[in-house]
Amino acid sequence: EQGDLDGDGCLTFEEFEALMEVDKVQVFFLKMGMDTHEAVALFHTIDADDSDSVDIDEFLFGVMRARSGVKALDMIAMMFDLQRMSAALGELT
User: Fold this and answer.
1) How many other CB atoms are found less than 10 A from the CB of residue 41?
2) Stretch (H or E) spanning 18
3) pLDDT digits (tens, 9 = 90+) for 49-67
């Protein structure tokens, strides 16, 4: 939600690109097994209507689903990492 600069509940590609410049966000995706290019590809995959905008919850769900092969403990750890990243991003805005 902190990446949603205009507060409309959606993450535009422009907002996503700005988030991808934040070191903590890059580290998060690396922990998920995705580099920057793969994260961008994921955004475009989730953006099924090619509007350059995705619902934030839908995007986060898509990120988690992209790593659906992980163990339950790994998923829980990623969820907490996501919460910490969200809190850290809130401090940046």
Assistant:
1) 13
2) helix 13-19
3) 888 998 877 788 777 777 7
Q: Give the 3-state secondary structure of residue 54.
A: strand
Six-digit token pair at 57? 């919850």
Cα–Cα distance list, 82 to 14, 29, 49, 51, 58 (Å): 20, 10, 26, 25, 14
Q: How far from 35 is each of 17, 38, 61, 62, 72, CA to CA, in Å?
A: 13, 5, 18, 16, 22
Confidence of residue 13 (pLDDT cuts 50, 70, 90): very high
User: Which pair of tokens denotes residue 66?
Assistant: 């992209």
Who has greater pLDDT, 4 or 1? 4
DSSP 3: T
Query: Cβ-count burial of 40 within 10 angstroms (0-12 exposed, 13-18 middle, 19+ buried)?
Result: middle
- Contact, 19 vs 4, CB < 8 A? no
Query: Where do we find the tokens 């403990």?
Result: 73
